[in-house]
Amino acid sequence: MKCRIKWLDHMTFVGESGSGHSVVMDGSPDAGGRDLGVRPMEMLLLGLGGCTAFDVVSILKKSRQSLLDCEVEIDAERADEVPKVFTRIHIHFIVSGRNLDASKVEKAVALSADKYCSASRILEKTAAITHDYEIINLA
Predict the structure, then answer these.
(1) Fewest CB atoms less than 10 Å from the CB: which of 1, 62, 91, 136?
(2) Tens of pLDDT, residues 59-87
(3) The overall pTM is greater than 0.85
(4) Which helix (H) or strand (E) holds 44?
(5) Quick check: 36 and 26 in contact, CB under 8 A?
């Protein structure tokens, strides 16, 4: 896996993925940025959310659940001192579908957290990561 980050100006960068996609990253104005894109540390949380959501959706589909939607909300805290690593991360899943089996949702979240999500496994080195979920069963 490869990627490339190119500095544009001020504190604005463009990240280009090996698969050909790009994203703008920028700092806050107090750090010399112009608020033109997502912060680099926010990118880590977005990656974590995408990684774990990918797992949960995949597991639930394989479990033949009638899944209609999956959202992940993440709340995190960082250390006050440099390096300002994440120290606490809470991941909340909102899973919607028809006749979803709560035990299968719980198992999917646990499997992602404990086995499959590479981003979680990396970030747990500095952060206490917790998870919960809610199920919205639609008619």
Answers:
(1) 1
(2) 999 999 999 999 999 999 999 999 999 99
(3) yes
(4) helix 40-62
(5) yes
